[in-house]
Amino acid sequence: MEQGKNDVQKQMREHSKPLVLIVDSNIMSQFTTSMILQRLDYFVYPVKTAEEALTAISITSPHVVLAETALPQMSGLALLQRIKKDKGTKNIPVIIYTKEQDQSTRQVYLQAGCEGYLTYPADPNHLYETIQQATEVTPRHFVRLNTSLEVTIGKQGAADPAAARERVSALSVDGMYVSTVKPVPYGTILPFTLFLEDSPNGSIGLEGKVLYSYSYDGRVGAVKQPGMGIKFTNILPEDRMLIKNFIQKKLMEGIAVAI
């Protein structure tokens, strides 16, 4: 048992991403949820029982607990009640993520203090938004996918030799992060050509506003990747849908949803 605790502590120290403790005795659905959340840039720690969850919570404080209702020995409801009654853990958000369809069950858990109740399998956007609302002061409303896509900054058109080619390292239906050593100031409106594999023409044209930017400061191991955060200001609805579908496909790539 002590070795198990030490292993958990080591993993917790090494991660720097928000920690989601997944409590689900079904290996297939646990794996599916874990893969999706890892692709959403969360650190996940999966366990099979409520008892294992309580051990993990005693070692570290997760950002959120994502729990099934049907668990061996101690139920999901008992786990929720234990977390909420303990003054040391009562502020940890608990989201119920279950195959249970009964609406009366939902009300029981909400009254017991859970911060969210989702029926499995939830759309990744809905799962992400629920976790964001439970854990963040300023929650994101759209999935932000870490990716690597080519983008042209400057004049519209893939063949324009005057356009600078950079990389998109994060993408949502609302904006993107463009990695570049030459970020421009806040408020600048720029045209972009985003190269998206699912687009009929292989790319989409749009405009975006610079919301923030980071320049390389010469320090070794600098945390911020040089570049700029872009909010889309002019994009066709069909192109926004292409981005949404691309993100959904990448999140679910190679994952068979267990129902």
Structure description:
The protein has 259 residues and is an alpha/beta fold. Helices cover 32% and strands 27% of the residues. The protein contains seven helices and eleven strands. The longest helix has 16 residues, at 237-252. The protein is elongated, with a radius of gyration of 21 Å.
Tell me about the largest β-sheet: 6 strands, antiparallel, barrel
What's the SSE pattern?
HEHEHEHEHEHEEEEEEH
Helix content: 25-40%
Total strands: the figure is 11
What's the overall geometry? elongated
Low-confidence stretches: 1-5
What's the N-to-C terminus distance? 33 Å
**Secondary structure tally, helices:** 7
Task: Give a short summary of the structure.
Helices cover 32% and strands 27% of the residues.
